[in-house]
Write a structure and sequence with these properties.
alpha/beta; Spore Coat Polysaccharide Biosynthesis Protein SpsA, Chain A; 2 domains; seven-stranded mixed sheet
Length: about 325
């Protein structure tokens, strides 16, 4: 497939007015040195400062600089979604606007996509310039969990500096807060040539971080959701049906045990309690009811899945007629 540009650089941002001019100058310097045909797409995620006005100023007279402005803040995933839709480059690079990501890393990431054949190259901030307690330690725990669940051996899943083959971003849907897991989305879409590159990480020069500690909790919940959807999204009965049967069998076995124990004690003349006086009976009853509910939930999910418009939406690599 032929592309009109070598690179599309997508920069989502929120209230980064001070850094935009310096960042674009840095990008232009690197691109001109390497001789790339490129475009820079700024996505203003509802900034309340003068970010959009600054983008208009620095883009004036330069057709390589494009911009998208949201009416309000929708989040980084929404910004990347629209940036990906607009990208025309053979390789698509995402980076943050706060000058912590270095454009000097782009040529090597581009080479790894084009020459080495990778689908995704993720940045790895080996030496973070953030607070070690509030950022580094939670980040290490978060990434260890992500590696375990996704099976992708990346040290820094959440790094904003990444490079993708164009086909990757055109075949995935980024929504909610799933921008953290684009490599996992790519893997689920069949793009499994994923690697990482150590990148230089700089201290924030202007402003302050837009992300707090809550992102780690939200990120973990999003990861579980994504894992569940990718594993059981098209076969929900495999999860709910199995869980329901297991719970039902546990409750059934417990009930039989209680009844048999009562009959044995009664036959031997041993003192016994009524079945309904035993706490185990109520646990068994709850287990049976949960089993039935889960099983019915599986049926309902199957009906929804079978009527989904994208139930036969599969990524085809190529065809021969």
């Amino acid at each position: 497939m032929e592309y009109s540009k070598d690179l599309s650089i997508i920069i989502p941002l929120l209230n980064e007015e001070e850094s935009l001019g310096e960042l674009l100058s840095w990008i232009r310097s690197v691109m001109n040195r390497e001789g790339y045909i490129y475009e820079v797409i700024f996505v203003d995620d509802g900034s309340s400062d003068g970010s959009w006005k600054k983008i208009q100023e620095i883009a004036d007279g330069d057709p390589r600089v494009k911009g998208i402005s949201f009416r309000r803040n929708y989040g980084k995933s929404a910004a990347l979604y629209h940036g990906f839709a607009k990208a025309e480059g053979r390789v698509v690079v995402t980076m943050d606007a706060d000058l912590q990501d270095s454009p000097e890393e782009i040529p090597e990431m581009y080479r790894m996509i084009v020459e080495d054949g990778y689908d995704v190259v993720s940045g790895w901030k080996q030496h973070r310039q953030d607070n070690k307690i509030t950022k580094n330690l939670p980040s290490k725990l978060y990434n260890a969990t992500a590696r375990k669940i996704t099976g992708i051996k990346l040290h820094d899943m959440n790094c904003g500096l990444k490079a993708y083959r164009n086909e990757v971003v055109k075949n995935i849907e980024v929504y909610g807060e799933m921008h953290r897991y684009i490599p996992y989305l790519a893997k689920n879409a069949g793009f499994d040539k994923i690697t990482e590159k150590p990148v230089h990480h700089q201290k924030r020069k202007y402003g302050k971080s837009k992300f707090g500690m809550e992102r780690f909790v939200n990120g973990f919940l999003d990861l579980l959701s994504l894992w569940f959807l990718s594993t059981f999204g098209k076969k929900p009965m495999h999860f709910f049906g199995f869980s329901g049967l297991l719970m039902f069998l546990v409750g059934f076995v417990m009930t039989i045990w209680i009844i048999v124990a009562k009959l044995v004690h009664q036959a031997r003349g041993i003192r016994f309690r009524a079945v309904t006086d035993q706490p185990l009976f109520y646990l068994a009853l709850v287990a049976v009811m949960l089993g039935v509910v889960l099983f019915l939930a599986g049926f309902i999910c199957e009906l929804i899945s079978r009527n989904s418009q994208d139930r036969n939406n599969y990524n085809i690599k190529e065809t021969l007629d």
